[in-house]
Amino acid sequence: MFTQPLPVLRRDGNALIILDQTLLPWRVVERRLVALDDVAEAISTMRVRGAPLIGCAAAFGVAVTLTAGSADDAALDHALAVLRATRPTAVNLAWALNRMDMRLRPLPFPMRREAAWAEAEAIFAEDAAMCAAIGAHGLGVLRALRSRAGRALRVMTHCNAGWLATAGMGTALAPVYAGCADGLEVEVFVSETRPRNQGLLTAWELAAAGVKHMLIADNAAGLLLMRGEADAVIVGADRIAANGDTANKVGTYLKALAAHAAGVPFYVAAPVSTFDPGTACGEAIPVEERAAEELFFVDGLDGQGCPGRLRLAPEGSCAVNPAFDVTPAALVSGFITERGVFGVEELDDFLQGIQA
Q1: Is-above-0.85 flag for pTM?
Q2: What burial letters (b/e) apply to 129-143, b meaning 16+ CB within 10 Å?
């Protein structure tokens, strides 16, 4: 059974303890969050990241807020509004906050504090179970793939959708972990995912788990797919529209195009909470624009092994920095969820099932 090597979120009394992912993979540091502003800052600056984990952190943020001060309607409304504004693209954030609102709103004010912690813990536990189910269904997908003779099955991924991004074994990486546990020989192509380099977190995860992987430049993905060196692409998602258009970390769309051209299956692994029936298509998905500074600088270790920041771009440069792109449904081979694997043509029935 999969066990997270380190806790990414945990309650400590009336505070939330997080693993600060902005310092990974060079330093492992926990932060203690004791107020609404602490949690909002952690989400917006990506100290906590990954669509499912953002939702979990926001749920705990409500509990932290109501415990630190009033638990009346005004306090609840303020917490929901502040947290909802931190990351606009990931629908799991709004899903978790809506669930907290529905659970807490009917309760008398004195009962809301412990109920908030209990509901946040329930969301976190359900997310871990969801990851395990995605891994089990994804294992079936991997076993159905045929690798080239003489080598392991090769999966390409983008960004980080493993245990650092969820409460469990991850979404896109869950089938890989499940496959390795089941004796399947799997290797992973890990793209850098600039400018935030979340691919380095994937490499760090996989190295810790003993999973063979190869770090690649983002721009090398097309060539590797064209040469048949990857047997499938599996990515996570931050929001999936009603028609199957999928928002994920910027650079995903390019991999989907290359996979389609090369005849390589392209899968999206995501929980039910990532599907957004209220968003008709990809054009309606809000795409977060982040600060130009993320493109101008890079973090790393110097020759003495000390963390530091280097400027890459010349002074006076301008930048456009969208955090996500949208992959059209026509490029998606299938969705791997906790409820099974299905194609775009089955999406309407799936959405009707989750709304029933």
Answers
A1: yes
A2: ebbbbbbbbbbebbe
Q: Which of 38, 231, 238, 325 is flagged as catalytic?
A: 238
Amino acid at 140: G
Name the DSSP class of 276.
Answer: E
DSSP of 144-164: HS-PPTTS-EEEEE-S--SGG
List, for residues 195-250, the tens digit of each pLDDT value: 999 999 999 999 999 999 999 999 999 999 999 999 999 999 999 999 999 999 99
Cβ atoms 310, 297 nearer than 8 A? yes
**pLDDT tens string 170-195:** 999 999 999 999 999 999 999 999 99
Q: Give the chain's radius of gyration (CA, Å).
A: 20
**Do residues 220 and 189 touch, judged by C-beta distance below 8 A?**
no
Give the chain's domains with CATH numbers.
Answer: 9-127 (1.20.120.420), 131-355 (3.40.50.10470)
**Which of 332, 197, 203, 202 shows the shortest CA–CA distance to 259?**
332
For the question of residue 20 being annotated catalytic, the response is no
